[in-house]
Amino acid sequence: MTTPQRMRLLNPGPVTLTPRVRAALSRPDLCHREAEFAALQLDVRRRVEHVYPEAADEYVAILLTGSGTAAVEAMVGSLVPETGRALVVANGVYGDRMARMLAAGSKRFDVVASDWLEGLDLSAVEARLAADSAVTHVLVVHHETTTGRLNDVAALGAMCKRYGRALLLDGVSSFGGEDIRFSDWNLEAVAGTANKCLHGVPGVSFVVVRKSVFAARTSGATSVYLDLWRHWKEQVGGWSPFTQSVHVMYALAEALTEMEEQGGWKARHQTYAARTARVKRTLEGLGVGLFLDKDPAASSSILTSYKVPAHVRYEDLHDQLKARGFVIYAGQGPYEGRMFRIAVMGDLTGADMEELDVALRASLARG
Ligand SMILES: *Cc1c(COP(=O)(O)O)cnc(C)c1O
Fold it and tell me: Is the distance from the beta carbon of residue 173 to the nearest atom of ligand 1 less than 6 Å?
């Protein structure tokens, strides 16, 4: 039997698994209505709540079977009440997606959009919050994966706190890799997923919600499956209204253990930053520029977008790197063919990073 080549995924999730996390998938079968599963789920919930120690006392993690989008939609749908009004602050695909979720759930909302190459339009948000007391919730993407920009949620969150509006954060591509401030940002909830910075398997996502919300309000959910109230009532005791992805939950438990042993989100952030600095240096040496070149410090530690050089076709670059065991990610929408993205999450060794240098040099050489 030949061993398949180990693919190193440089796309923004799913990530290359460690052997340990992969092995966890083959633990014993469990019924999700048995005590063993309840214990597993309670343990995973508790550990997700502790990724950011600040959240541990006042927030609860609710685990959902689904990809990151399921968690974002459960958050947006359940937490923006019928009587509320949302303000989406958007500068990319994932901000737009939250607006589509609000529309699909017939919620009242407005959007403050900026160009995908720009940061959040904070002055427009402030003008709106000052003028309109009907806005109950502000929605934003932390790390806008479209361009790799780490949005200035510190400034937006401080504004939410000042004006007394709740912040709902799409932290799907930042949870576990970037700093999240629960109190300073007036966070009501943050959505995350197993298979990005936490290095788990796709299939479980979660919303970390301020506990007091469940006591004070009733669900705004227009969906049966993605109703956080319904999940919360059962999950407090370890149970679930629907079948959970048992084996994916095992893998998440193992991934969280691994992360704790490695020093938590801060250590992971440092690792990503070092990997990204290395890739940037290599590409710079090859004459490849940052896509956000007007704002070179704006990118996250997790993913960076680059310009496809004039002498290269994106598809060829992708295919050549893939032949060497690396999967990169295309630009979306207007940037298709003009941008490529490199994420550095997952199990990448020093040898992988060296091979990546070699592969980038070979694939981007002028012919
Ligand atoms: C990956 C991602 C999502 C969710 O994507 P899924 O494919 O549903 O896992 C949501 N928001 C952001 C910012 C993301 O990067």
Answer: yes
